[in-house]
């Protein structure tokens, strides 16, 4: 069924707006996936702040113009689903990687982050990035480590004095 020009312009504008605000994008071939599986994938994507877009390749090529994802232009061949990570750069990669494990016919074509197109074999680089919460936890642990060591060191001084006094006491008791 043909899409009207106004509808095409709206689709291009919507995808362009999504791409402009996204941190990364993952492309996948969705041939052979049932509508029920796609519904499940979309629900998981919403929960992870990932926006899934199924758009004609010509419209997608127009939509990514002027964004950092222009590098995916050559990868837009055949039926393609675009997964844009909006808050966590690795969210779309984790989502589609897990979905590809469940569904063998679902094939990841590539991914892009920071204006660089990477092959599907690089999905782990992006998928293994920590989430925002995990990164903040690691930062807090690194920040807290020197303070913890200082507290332990300061606590060790009275402990050493106490052990020295106890050793002298034991020595005098043994001598007496």
From TrEMBL:
Q: Give the matching Pfam families.
A: Ribosomal_L10 (PF00466)
One GO term (biological process): translation
UniProt keyword list: Ribonucleoprotein, Ribosomal protein, RNA-binding, rRNA-binding
| InterPro entries to which the protein is assigned, alphabetical | Ribosomal_uL10 (IPR001790), Ribosomal_uL10-like_sf (IPR043141), Ribosomal_uL10_bac (IPR022973), Ribosomal_uL10_bac_type (IPR047865)
Identify the SUPFAM superfamilies for this entry.
Answer: Ribosomal protein L10-like
This entry's Gene Ontology molecular function terms read: large ribosomal subunit rRNA binding
Coiled-coil zones: none
* One GO CC term on file: ribosome
For this protein, the record's PANTHER family field holds: 39S RIBOSOMAL PROTEIN L10, MITOCHONDRIAL (PTHR11560)
The UniProt subunit note reads as follows:
Part of the ribosomal stalk of the 50S ribosomal subunit. The N-terminus interacts with L11 and the large rRNA to form the base of the stalk. The C-terminus forms an elongated spine to which L12 dimers bind in a sequential fashion forming a multimeric L10(L12)X complex.
Q: What does this protein do?
A: Forms part of the ribosomal stalk, playing a central role in the interaction of the ribosome with GTP-bound translation factors.
Concerning NCBIfam families, the annotation shows: PRK00099.1-1 (NF000955)
The text of the family note is: Belongs to the universal ribosomal protein uL10 family.
- Full protein name: Large ribosomal subunit protein uL10
Q: Which gene encodes it?
A: rplJ
């Amino acid at each position: 069924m043909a899409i009207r020009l106004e509808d095409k312009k709206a689709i291009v504008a919507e995808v362009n707006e999504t791409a402009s605000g996204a941190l990364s994008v993952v492309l996948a071939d969705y041939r052979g996936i049932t509508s029920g599986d796609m519904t499940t994938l979309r629900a998981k994507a919403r929960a992870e702040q990932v926006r899934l877009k199924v758009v004609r390749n010509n419209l997608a090529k127009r939509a990514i113009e002027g964004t950092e994802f222009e590098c995916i232009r050559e990868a837009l061949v055949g039926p393609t689903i675009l997964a844009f990570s909006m808050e966590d750069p690795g969210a779309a990669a984790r989502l589609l990687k897990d979905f590809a494990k469940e569904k063998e016919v679902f094939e990841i074509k590539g991914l892009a982050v920071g204006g660089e197109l990477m092959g599907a074999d690089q999905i782990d680089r992006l998928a293994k990035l920590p989430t925002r919460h995990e990164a903040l936890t690691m930062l807090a642990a690194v920040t807290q480590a020197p303070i913890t060591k200082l507290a332990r060191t300061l606590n060790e001084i009275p402990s050493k004095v106490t052990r020295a006094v106890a050793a002298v006491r034991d020595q005098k008791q043994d001598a007496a």
